[in-house]
Amino acid sequence: MAAAEKLLEFQFPARSAYLCTLREKLREVLGPCSPSEELLNCVVLAVSEACVNIIEHAYCEDDTGDIILEIERQDDNIIFRLTDFAHRKTSKEEMKSRPLEEIRPGGLGCHIINEIMDEVQLIECNSDCGNVLQMKKKLEP
Predict the structure, then answer these.
(1) What is the pLDDT of residues 67-88, one digit of tens each?
(2) Residue 110 burial by CB count (10 A; 0-12/13-18/19+): exposed, middle or buried?
(3) Domains of the chain by range and CATH?
(4) Closest to 23 (Cα-Cα) out of 41, 38, 5
């Protein structure tokens, strides 16, 4: 297994107004290594959804915090690490989607993320941060 190559470290305010900039950065960094536009679109969607969940559920719409996105490439895998500094710790139980048969707006972010990414996990972090979400996607055509 090759050493991980850092592709990006991007810190931005945990506000929805910055999601467009986030998506632009993702496309810029991942475009050259993505085997297809479809895969690129799916990954951008999943990372955006994860950030929306951080803004809405970890920070609870408190717009004073930040999110750090780190992207690494290791062999054919892209690893995404999202770190927030919210005072609220998220549990694995909270990261479940609602039943899909419940037809109503919202609540599908975790389902979308889990469908697109190959691995999704909360990582234990020190007391300086709130939550660390790590997602992995294998780059294959």
Answers:
(1) 999 999 999 999 999 999 998 8
(2) middle
(3) 5-138 (3.30.565.10)
(4) 41
Give the pairing type, strands 77-84 and 131-138. Answer: antiparallel
Distance between CA atoms of residues 39 and 77, nearest Å:
13
Q: Enumerate the β-bridge partners of residue 28.
A: none
The 10s digit of each residue's pLDDT in 1-11 is 788 999 999 99
Distances (CA, A) of 17 to 48, 107, 122, 134, 136: 12, 20, 25, 23, 25
Quick one: which of 58, 60, 80, 84 has its CA closest to 70? Answer: 80
pTM confidence score = 0.90
Q: From the centroid of its chain, how far is CA 99?
A: 21
Q: Determine whether 131 is exposed, middle or buried from the number of CB atoms within 10 Å of its CB (0-12, 13-18, 19+).
A: buried
The pair of structure tokens assigned to 64 is 């004073």
